[in-house]
Specification:
globular, cyclin-dependent protein serine/threonine kinase regulator activity, mainly alpha, Cyclin A, domain 1, about 65% helix
């Protein structure tokens, strides 16, 4: 039974089921490591995989936040181009002719800035002594947010703090807002919570996350049960693999691959022998000799599985480190010049937008008041007529 105050995720599965997550979907590891969309392309594969991994495939992470590398690149490029057009128009509306001299960020530069602030999450978690779950969740929220938004609207520093604070709540490690803000220089409570709903909305309110470090823990438990395993070697390999898992958070790995795939790749980087032993144990069928091929011309299932992990390992090794500060500093300098003027407090564009929002809000309140007065005059304050009128879309203008 869960303790008081513990969040229990039913739709997205039991997040505490480490071993099921670790041994999750060997079928997916073999068939989807290089092509994460394979389940959608081949219905027979999807049905077989579903039978083996119902929990993960039922999760919002699998259904909403899994992409191919091409899809990620297209999403970011399209978002960046649309943002540049909107912001350019905002510059022109604020002061005609000024957008010609503005050097807008491209999608790669936006990603570089997001990556820097993702790397800073661990520093804050170390300061507040937050557990691994909070750190991993905050980084995931940050990366997902910028698949829906642009840094030219919302600076990653503010979003990073908000995703971290939100993660403390969704992982059941809450902290008082005042205490959180007081320990961060030049930060007020409003800086943290003003965009909290926007962040939650951008996440689609998909708060549950299936993490790689939990899958790695399950792998570690599995390996302990294998014969002829040196526990001292296993402990050292686990620590190294966990470092690779943390490095993977700075990459797109979790947006492309399953947690079990990334965990096995990290174990392979730490100890190829242990990863091979685990793969042989899981791929061997009863009555067969582990690792013996049925066809000498084709690789064994465990060998094929490990070969398909190579793109993940390469991604972690080449992209799993924080960006150079000087490169990011130049991007951040340019961001100050191309930031959406409608988001800059005190600018003409900001003031105009606020005035427009206030005007629309006043009109909406006036319409609702008139509807209520009419209903009262008709003697039907809570009747069907008022209910039908209130169903009309009043355009809340929640586009911030």
């Amino acid at each position: 039974m869960p303790g008081p105050g513990r969040i229990v995720y039913t739709q997205d599965g039991d997040l505490g089921d480490n071993k099921r997550l670790a041994t999750l979907s060997l079928f997916l590891i073999v068939h989807q490591a290089l092509n994460p969309m394979a389940a959608e392309q081949t219905p027979s594969v999807a049905s077989t995989a579903s039978a083996r991994s119902p929990l993960y495939e039922a999760s919002t992470q699998y259904r909403h936040w899994r992409f191919s590398p091409e899809q990620l690149a297209h999403t970011r490029t399209t978002l960046n181009e649309a943002a540049v057009k909107v912001i350019r128009d905002a510059f022109e509306a604020d002061s005609p002719g000024t957008s010609a001299d503005v050097s807008f960020l491209d999608a790669d530069e936006e990603l570089l800035l997001v990556k820097l602030y993702a790397s800073k999450v661990s520093q804050f978690c170390g300061h507040f002594r937050f557990p691994e779950e909070v750190e991993a969740t905050a980084v995931t929220y940050l990366k997902r947010f910028y698949l829906k938004n642009t840094v030219m609207d919302w600076h990653p520093k503010n979003v990073m703090l908000t995703t971290l604070f939100l993660a403390t709540k969704t992982t059941n490690h809450p902290i008082a807002l005042e205490h959180f803000a007081a320990h961060i220089p030049r930060t007020s409570p409003s800086d943290v919570v003003d965009i909290e709903f926007l962040v939650a909305q951008s996440l689609g309110f998909d708060f549950a996350v299936w993490h790689t470090h939990r899958a790695l823990w399950g792998l570690w438990l599995d390996l302990q049960a294998l014969p002829d395993i040196d526990l001292n070697e296993l402990r050292k390999a686990y620590d190294i693999a966990l470092a690779h898992v943390r490095a993977s958070r700075l990459t797109d790995a979790e947006l492309i691959y399953a947690p079990s795939q990334i965990a096995l790749a990290c174990m392979s980087l730490a100890s190829p022998g242990l990863a091979s032993a685990w793969a042989r144990a899981k791929c061997s069928s009863p009555g067969s000799t582990p690792g013996s091929p049925s066809d000498s011309s084709s690789p064994t299932p465990d060998t094929a599985m490990l070969q398909l992990l190579e793109p993940i390992k390469n991604m972690i090794l080449t992209q799993g480190s924080p960006p150079e500060v000087e490169a990011v500093r130049e991007v951040d300098r340019r961001l100050k010049l191309c930031k959406n003027p409608e988001k800059i407090v005190g600018s003409n564009a900001y003031n105009k937008k606020r005035e427009e929002q206030e005007r629309k809000a006043a009109e909406k309140r006036t319409r609702k008041a008139a509807q209520i007065r009419k209903a009262m005059a008709d003697g039907d304050p809570f009747g069907s007529e008022l209910g039908d009128q209130m169903l009309v879309d009043d355009d809340d203008d929640d586009d911030d």
